[in-house]
Amino acid sequence: MRIITGIYKGRRFDVPRSFKARPTTDFAKENIFNVLNKYVDFEDSMALDLFAGTGSISLELLSRGCREVVSVEKDRDHAHFILQCLEKINATNDTLICGDVFRFLKSNKKLFNVVFADPPYTLNNIVDLPDLILTGKTLAPDGLFVLEHGKHNNFETHPMFIEHRSYGSVNFSLFR
């Protein structure tokens, strides 16, 4: 796993083979961040990475200058790996929460400019995530929600849907 661009550009982290999480491929990550650049000024943004997995998206957000990133990951081993990566780059502006995403969203009091969610593609309630994020108290006005999902999900009829991108088997739906 590597950081594509920004202040930590080129840094690599070896994800343990035992991990269940599938990090977003470098190809997909680079391309979706190129798209996001037209919607988001990352510098000074508050970002939320849900289902953080290996921390790949959190690290990319930090590298691109986000003022603060909150990473939520339920699996303790994955959270520990993310913490090690954050320590390697001396990041002090990431808050790592080892816990359930849905519990976090219920108790969250912060507004984020960017919310990125990369849930397991087989998550039963993946179709509920856009409404949960967009109608809750999570996304700032004019904020952007990015949902990574499998090819079997289609969110184009959602009233706040703005764009879909596909990179191989990786799909992203963007909402505002």
TrEMBL record:
Pfam families: Cons_hypoth95. Signal peptide: none annotated. Keywords: Methyltransferase, Transferase. Coiled coil: none annotated. It comes from the Bacteria. GO terms for molecular function: methyltransferase activity; nucleic acid binding. The keyword Metal-binding does not apply. One of its GO terms (biological process) is rRNA methylation. Gene3D superfamilies: Vaccinia Virus protein VP39 (3.40.50.150). The keyword Methyltransferase applies. PANTHER family: METHYLTRANSFERASE. This is RsmD family RNA methyltransferase. It comes from Prevotella micans F0438.
